[in-house]
What we know:
This is Glycogen [starch] synthase. It catalyses: [(1->4)-alpha-D-glucosyl](n) + UDP-alpha-D-glucose = [(1->4)-alpha-D-glucosyl](n+1) + UDP + H(+). This protein is of the alpha/beta class. The protein has 3 domains: 26-229 and 259-296, Rossmann fold; 309-391 and 459-613, Glycogen Phosphorylase B (Rossmann fold, 3-Layer(aba) Sandwich); 394-457. The two termini are 32 Å apart.
Amino acid sequence: MERKRSSSMTRQSSKRFYRSDSQGDLAKFWDHGEHFAMQNRWVFECAWEVANKVGGIYTVIRSKTGVSVNELGDQYVLLGPYFEFKAKQEVEEEDFPYHHPLGQAVERARQKGYRIHCGRWLVEGNPQIILFDVGSAGAKMNEFKHELYEKAGIGIPHEDVEANDVCIFGLMVAEFLGDFRFLAENYSDSPPRIVGHFHEWMAGVGLIMSRIWKIDIATVFTTHATLLGRFLCAGALDFYNKLDQFNCDEEAGKRGFYHRYCIERAAAHLCHCFTTVSDITGKEAEHLIKRKPDMITPNGLNVQRDLHEFQNLHAESKEKINQFVRGHFYGHFDFDLDKTLYFFIAGRYEFGNKGADIFIESLARLNHLLKEAKSDKTVVAFLIFPTKTNSFNVESLRGHAVTKGLKDTIDEIQKVVGNRLYETCLRGMVPDGNDLLSKNDIVKLKRCIFAQAHTNLPPITTHNIVDDAMDPVMNAFRRCQLFNNRTDRVKVVFHPEFLTSTNPLFNLDYQEFVRGCHMGVFPSYYEPWGYTPAECTIMGIPSITTNLSGFGCFMQEQIVDPQSYGIYIVDRMHIGVEESVSQLAKCMMDFVGLNRRQRIIMRNRTERLSDMLDWKSLGIYYRRARMRALQNVFPDVSENEEAPRLPSRLNYPRPISEPPSLAPSRANSPNSSAPGSDSEASHDSEEEEAELQTALSQLQAS
């Protein structure tokens, strides 16, 4: 009877398992552009952040280049503005052959007086890149702006320098695409089929003018975050519940960026295929830009998986964080590091949008819950937001100096004691403990121990912040009375600059820091996608996100029970702030309640989701967006025609064990899993799975 029940449970659970090759995989189209070249097809991807690191779009495009080149080869070209300092570090300049339409189009632009830099971007895939020096066309700025106003009705104020540059860049790109389209006509027997993919409003002018000039290309426009959305959320409005109530023209006008809003809205309406990075941004665009996206193009990452090493990397990086904690909390270091968990939040310093407000409030409640439960565990919460500082906090530096002095003294005494022990044993004598440490050694140790005596509380920040009294994080700490008292089970550290390997306090970069933490907490109110929780996932670090972030929505759709995979999703859409804070505090308390073994199993499960976030899987959405645009302009293009005959499909390593309760892929995703299609059993032991599942059930029940 027991065997039958076990067999039945195995069959039921196997229906919920997923396999990585059930997802859409771009690899089957990888021929490095051979098929595209034969068909005279081209893809130009245009963004202000091509070889120009400003924000998240740079990460999107840079991380995607590898799979784009594998699919499209040299039929794929990136277009961006030229910034000398950045370009010299990232671009290897080389001219295209003159007999090639790219070389001819570049030469035509140079004959107009434009400075054009072309070559290869030094990133994965080494894609072709063309950068336009906006300053070289500065003399035509008024002419360009006049044409944009006459043809599109969009006027750009003279004092908006950035918008002026965007206008010049857009006209230069549109002229280049027009020249290339004409020159490509004679390059092959097949008529050219060109897709121009434009990202955000800063590339929007190029799309607008391409359509106005009736250049025979298909266009895709992707918005990663709407202009109005970011500003309205920062204004502490009940944004998502009032989406349909905003007067968009009035709101943009009041905030002084109506012309930018017009560029964004015009590009979205003129493109042949409009996409956003998430469903939540799609809903936002539908109300603020007045066009529903044709499809969603989620953001991915380059995933380099090592199925065992990530646990070892976690332990190594955690030890470096341990070293920081020993120094920062010197004189008050009375908690057990083996029973200490590290939580963190990081990103742009948008206090409300990034959810730092409810994170700090929930930390205060977590502190109360742990005290009430008489827990022996400690949580150290790091907040990493760059802001203006004067210098490092002297107390923090002193603590690290004191602990380093103690470590050096002990290492010196340890060496001397080792020699004494060796000499005593050589003489055939059993060493006496009293003889190993000399009086001088004891004096040295006492001096180091007394130097640790510290009456002040450990600092809550590692730097001296400019205008400390007005800083929102510092004020929230004061309001919630998070001062790192001895009795506090939650300690806080505000680090107001991004982490680098040269940081004298941490001595590790951001990626190492993330690996060393136990959980990332990102309770954002406005987060069109959310690269920080995605990065945690591929490193096997559980995270907390919200149903107002693109990443959170994506995971909710893909996974039946995200929490069992270490993806905790807080509701910030359907409940009030008070309930959201309580829910966040409970999520953290539930995680603290897991023992070390259960956390290891959780990290294994989290890391298995990496395949879902790999560009090899998510890049297929970009391909479909391009196909949709092409078919809108060129009805003769068919997707079947574009599928080349390839060698056998590449097989990527499967997860160590099959995770439970993964939902079939979203409706419009490629090759969704068929229910019950897997018959393989889990590689995790039944005891491990049962142990974690029981713990989660108990925590949820409580």
